[in-house]
Specification:
The structure is a single chain. The chain is of the alpha/beta class and 365 residues long. The protein folds into two domains: 245 residues, Aldolase class I (TIM Barrel, Alpha-Beta Barrel); 61 residues, no CATH class. 41% of the residues lie in helices and 23% in strands. It contains 15 helices and 15 strands. Helix 1 runs parallel beside helix 2 and helix 6 packs parallel to helix 8. The model has no long low-confidence stretch (mean pLDDT 95). The structure holds iron/sulfur cluster (SF4). Iron/sulfur cluster (SF4) binds next to loops.
Length: 365
């Protein structure tokens, strides 16, 4: 069985104003205890000969840890699982938290893909978001990562930001492409409850965001980056293998505070609080077998985020029934409206409707 492994690092140097992820500011001793608990959790995992083909360090900011600590965690994964020779091993990275030596150490310890949180090429926008790096630092980080031997590199961008204009967004896209990453993720800003932006009553101009999304799709396509999922664009062959596992509901195991797992239709998640996690107070807090309907619904919801949609034969093979047996009316309604099509035996949401796919998919949950 092939498996993805996710490692959660719940620490950041500072909290961005829009972020509701499970992360906080920490000191060295907390991080040290966390790394030790994390390695224990990985090494104690009962592994029935699972073959790991993707590993992803996310957060938080994984690179807030010492590179040697990241290597220590990766070694625990190597010691516990059979890791494919061609395994995609990614770490997310904040440009202000790592230097060239650190990147070299990561590369030599087995990391082969890096995902850099660039977000914007405009320093005023970065500052307003609460990011701790400048665009110049991001450019340097990309250069250092290349020199350290990372051939597979992704950058994250954000649109729909307060104070962002079409012109500054175009500049961000142009400067991102000039860095020549293999992969670009573009996320529209969402205002999440409990964040500083929520308290500041920041409004999002939905129409402007939509225009920015369309500009991004067109510009990236012209520059050799194909959209393969609502928010993700890649040069051919450089799609994120790990994230595709999530969208295809393939098996993955998450380690660390608040990490989610899904293995053979059983979902479970770790306790979210870092102290509780370190102290082992009921590590696994939620574990349930998904109903058949939940599995199908999730498979459709996530699969239709991808540009090439769902393979109908694969669906039948997986669930021993045709998709029409479950959602005939909903599919017919959407095909009639033009918001879904069947092409090459695949069910697809046409690209022009992907941006509003959540609204389309409410019928399927
Ligand atoms: S660096 Fe990422 S995880 Fe950390 S606060 Fe900012 S957005 Fe959130």
């Amino acid at each position: 069985m092939s498996l993805g492994v996710y490692i959660h690092i719940p620490f950041c140097a500072a909290k961005c104003r829009y972020c509701d992820f499970n992360s906080h500011i920490s000191d060295y001793s907390e991080r040290k205890l966390y790394v030790s608990a994390l390695c224990d959790e990985i090494r104690n995992f009962k592994n029935d000969d699972m073959q790991v083909d993707t590993i992803y360090f996310g957060g938080g900011t994984p690179t807030i840890l010492e590179p040697s600590q990241l290597a220590q965690i990766l070694n625990a994964v190597y010691d516990t699982f059979n890791v494919d020779k061609t395994c995609e091993i990614t770490t997310e990275c904040n440009p202000a938290t790592i230097d060239k030596n650190g990147l070299e150490l990561l590369r030599s310890s087995g990391f082969n893909r890096i995902s850099i949180g660039m977000q914007s090429a405009n320093d005023d926008e970065l500052k307003f978001l609460g990011r701790i790096h400048s665009f110049a630092e991001c450019e340097k980080c990309v250069r250092d990562a290349r020199e350290a031997g990372f051939e597979n590199l992704s950058v994250d961008l954000m649109f729909g930001l307060p104070r962002q204009t079409i012109e500054t967004w175009k500049t961000t896209l142009r400067k991102a492409v000039a860095l020549s990453p293999n992969h670009i993720s573009c996320y529209g800003l969402k205002i999440e409850e409990g964040t500083p932006f929520y308290s500041m009553n920041i409004d999002i101009d939905e129409e402007l965001s939509r225009d920015m999304y369309d500009i991004c799709d067109e510009f990236l396509y012209k520059n050799g980056y194909g959209m393969y999922e609502i928010s993700n664009f890649a040069k051919s062959g450089c799609e994120s293998r790990h994230n595709i596992k999530y969208w295809k509901c393939d098996d993955y195991i998450g380690f660390g505070a608040g990490a989610y797992s899904c293995v053979n239709g059983v979902r479970f998640s770790n306790v979210r609080d870092t102290n509780d996690y370190i102290n082992r107070e009921g590590k696994v807090i939620d574990k349930y077998e998904q109903s058949e309907f939940d599995k199908i619904s999730e498979y459709i919801f996530l699969g239709l985020r991808m540009v090439d949609g769902i393979d109908l034969a694969e669906f039948k093979n997986r669930f021993s029934k045709s998709i029409y047996e479950v959602f005939e009316k909903q599919i017919e309604k959407n095909i009639h409206r033009g918001t879904m099509i069947i092409k090459n035996d695949r069910l697809i949401i046409p690209k022009k409707y992907l941006y509003v796919s959540n609204a389309i998919l409410v019928d399927f949950v």
